[in-house]
Amino acid sequence: MRYSKLFAPTLKEPPKDAVLKSHQFLVQAGYIQQIGSGVYSFLPLAQRVLKKILNVIDEVMQAHGAQSCLFNFVTPATLWQESGRFGKYGKELLAFKDRKDNDFVLGPTHEEVAVEIAKAHIKSYKQLPLHLYQIHTKFRDEIRPRFGLMRAREFIMKDGYSFHIDSADLDREFLNMQAAYNEIFECLGLKVRAVEADSGAIGGSKSREFVLLAPCGEDTLVACASCAYVANVEVAKRAKRAEPDNVPQAAFAKFPTPNTPNIEAVSAYLKVEPFFILKAVVKKVLLENNESQLAVFFVRGDDSLEETKALNACKSQVPALSLEDIEGAELKKYGLFAGYIGPYGLKHLVPNALVFFDTDLSEADSLVCGANEEGAHFVGVDLSSFSGLDYKDIATAKAGQACAECGGVLEHHKSIEVGHIFKLGDKYSKSLGAQFLDQEGRACCFEMGCYGIGVSRLLAAILEQNADERGCVWSETTAPFKVVLVVANTKDNALNALGEELYTALLDANVEVLLDDRAERFGAKMADFELIGCSYALIVGNKAKEGVFELVKRQGLSKLEMTKQEVLDFFKGA
Ligand code: ATP
Ligand code: MG
Question: Distance from the CA of 324 to the center of ligand 1, in angstroms?
Fold first, then answer.
């Protein structure tokens, strides 16, 4: 391709609102254009990168037994009503009506559609297993679309759905996909880790996320410094905490604690370590029927509530959708005082409140807790004196705490999620009534798995991992062109002729080459090479007349002199 014909509208400056380097460079280098909030168009350079990613995904998925499809994007809401997700998925689901007043959704994920297809055609165990996948547009009305392709509203996902006769075969496919994903990411040049994760709105029993470490990541990983344990903070476990030496010695009593509306103040006033103080976090739980309920979560004073764990605890009791903060003034309506909330009399004050205690508090004693009146706490509290407390893992596993697997030290890392695989079990096949006949002729629901990759997010992720301060750096398998041929001085006809000759030779050798034939200064051309980030620049400079060309590698900008033959050999091998 000739650069003069390429539509790559580069900008002098990155967009003002772009904070991530991937977002800055993708816009500045003319890869993408924002059309609306969280909505982007992919221009020719991005389309080239996308196609390479799609090829890798197609090749690996098909080698692992999955078949490529293209599902509908607009889905009748009736399917989502049947699965029970229409009211549950929340505001990320964009729904609308057609001219006949029928409800539709823009697919944020396609479990319902995949089940509908399997349900229509798979009648016998003999037709199983089946794995269908697609690479297509998704729409999620994200509350905070940002960071360019990283968190868009309209984005491209690879999503696959597998159907099995039993959970053992699903387990096999889950491992098969884990291997496939590792292969895909390795082939794309990404250093990715598979970690334990929460299943979120998709649901199911077990899930694994594929993440890459990056300071700009929106997720937090908890990893053990000593063993292989690594999990999203939303599900990360920790060992039971060691009790500090100075255990408070007090008989059970109510104690006046004026002006101590937070843990620090109580701790200073009573000279008790926060470890021994019960912290109450109160949230409003929004339910599927649009009603709400109060939930009180107790954790140690120096622990924090982990919101996903807290929501999952609520889901174990009620059809909870989400948690919302609650103001001190609203708490007073329930007779609760921020900073002085405790378990004594709580059920009396708020009879239908959900109350959970972090597992680290199980059987804990020598505690301090709020007395449910302003300016008073109980001391010498022994939780084993209560019966029927609901203990759940609801606290954040913090950096520096001990690993549940080996006792090693836990660390926190920021990460970007690029893929997520789930064991769904019969969640969707049951609700949508999708059955097959097993070997004994019994009707059974499919066991299902689902497997996603954030394809458009990958463009951003690759750049977050590789880009430098000058611009995009792609992995070798994803760069839009392998090499840019830069004629240093286009006014020199001899150099132009040498450039054309090399261009033809590279095209003949099937090398993806971009000939920079623009009447620009050499410096400007090299700056564009650095901004766009093709893997190599091949410079046709003065030495070309003696048969020597300079090859610049975009990654690291190292330089090498080569003859024409060496250039051809190099790219044939590359
Ligand atoms: P996140 O926690 O980042 O919102 P998710 O858990 O909602 O992700 P999944 O439902 O598992 O995502 O979707 C599969 C993949 O699609 C994710 O691993 C991610 O790479 C990608 N993805 C999800 N939401 C977005 C988005 N808003 N923009 C771009 N890619 C996304
Ligand atoms: Mg999401």
Answer: 22
